[in-house]
Design a protein that fits this description.
It is a single chain. This protein has one domain. The longest helix is centred in the first third of the chain and has 52 residues, at 2-53. Helices cover 69% and strands 0% of the residues. The chain is mainly alpha-helical. It has helices spanning 2-53, 57-66, 72-85, 91-97, 114-125.
Amino acid sequence: MSSQNSKPTAWLKKALLYAIPGGALAMAILYAIACLFIFTSVKTICTKAEREFKQDHVTSLMAVVISDKFTDKDKNDAIWALGQIGAKQALPLLESMYTGIKDKRCNRHETICQYELEKAIRFINSKFIITRWMYRNL
């Protein structure tokens, strides 16, 4: 009876020996892909703003948010990017726009989304965001 119990236990140990590192590797790959996607999106938004306003990326993103030349989608993208970067100097601007009336289903093409503002403010105020390290050299 003990030899029957040892076979499933040995198989389970062997499976775990491969599954745990394999799962960790899969999670690391997914994290890297997500970071690349987020960084590329933020970089694209920053480049567009810098091209228009010829300032550093934070100042240019803030200019997008208050400009009449950009669509609400562009402004929401700039707000998101400011939150991702953790731009403390944008906090007064974002807080002045925040009414506290949130709708997660906001149409980003037609209005400045309060939910997007709330997230950006929360991200800027957060001490730790798992992707913040990417923007040190932006």
